Amino acid sequence: MNIKVNILYLTLVFILVACNGKQSSAGDGDRPRVLIQTSFGDMVVELYNETSQHRDNFLKLAKEGFYDDLLFHRVIEGFMIQGGDPNSKNASKSKRLGDGGPGYTIPAEFVDGFYHKKGALSAARQGDNVNPEKNSSGSQFYIVQGKVWDDEMIKQLEEKQKLQAARQQMMKMYNDRMDDIKRYQKNNMQDSIMQLRIEIQETAEQQVDSSLYKINNERREIYSTLGGTPHLDGGYTVFGEVVEGLSVIDSIATIQTDKNNRPLDDIIMKMKVIKE
Questions:
Q1: Contact status, residue 125 vs residue 137, Cβ threshold 8 Å
Q2: Which residues, 6+ apart, have CB-to-CB distance to 94 below 8 Å?
């Protein structure tokens, strides 16, 4: 009887240890941290283990001193602060920045549950027209300031994103039916063209899954209190967040900028890995 009890006890201990270990590996305590120093104050960012390629790259560049003396070269109040362009180091005031990098990109790592709340650390990238895979810049990043969204604003955003998805689907369907369209145009078949347009629009709207553009309750709570930029979710990789120094974002965001959103007074950064 005692043997059975001991075996049961040891089994329970093993299960608890295994469960605790699993929770710990995914928990905040095991996430790497990097200190970002600026003249406006310091920020500590925590890197998500689930976005391992972005995490490892950011740590590597920070340890190498890649980011030291670079600028936050793009600042838009109510939106975000962006840096990481190697061309910004010792850049003249007239130099336009934002195109530099380490010579490589990183595959997108979209993780459900990581979104553009205030303080989110996200990877900058080129636009969809030249980068449909949404690959991230090898070094440029931005930190979200954003704004607080009320229910009506969130509802309007959901409708806008759904409409954009329907339009993209319509364009694809138009391209697929281009031979028919050209034939109708050649033969001046205006009724057929109109009917085709109606057919494509109705089909596209039916094919769009509205649930994909719904902002869940957790995100709604964050965006309606802390704030952020929900329209960027699913388009740019979020790979960390500011855990100390959120007010520094607000301070930097108020600085005066030129027509290219570059601060008139340079905001220089330095980085130090404080936990791997």
A1: yes
A2: none
Token couple for 155 = 């509802």
| Residue-range domain boundaries for the chain | 32-147+226-275, 152-212
Burial class of residue 113 in the structure, from the number of CB atoms within 10 Å of its CB (0-12 exposed, 13-18 middle, 19+ buried):
exposed
Kindly tell me if the per-residue pLDDT of 3 is higher than 50: no
For the cut 70, the answer to whether the pLDDT of residue 268 exceeds it is yes
Beta strand 74-76 with 41-47 is unpaired
> Looking at residue 213, what is its pLDDT?
73
Q: Where does the pLDDT of residue 161 fall: very low under 50, low under 70, confident under 90, or very high at 90 and above?
A: confident
CATH 2.40.100.10 fits 32-147+226-275, yes or no: yes
Positive or negative: CA dihedral 244, 245, 247, 250: negative
Q: Mean pLDDT over residues 152-175, rounded? A: 89
For 119, the 3-state DSSP assignment is: coil
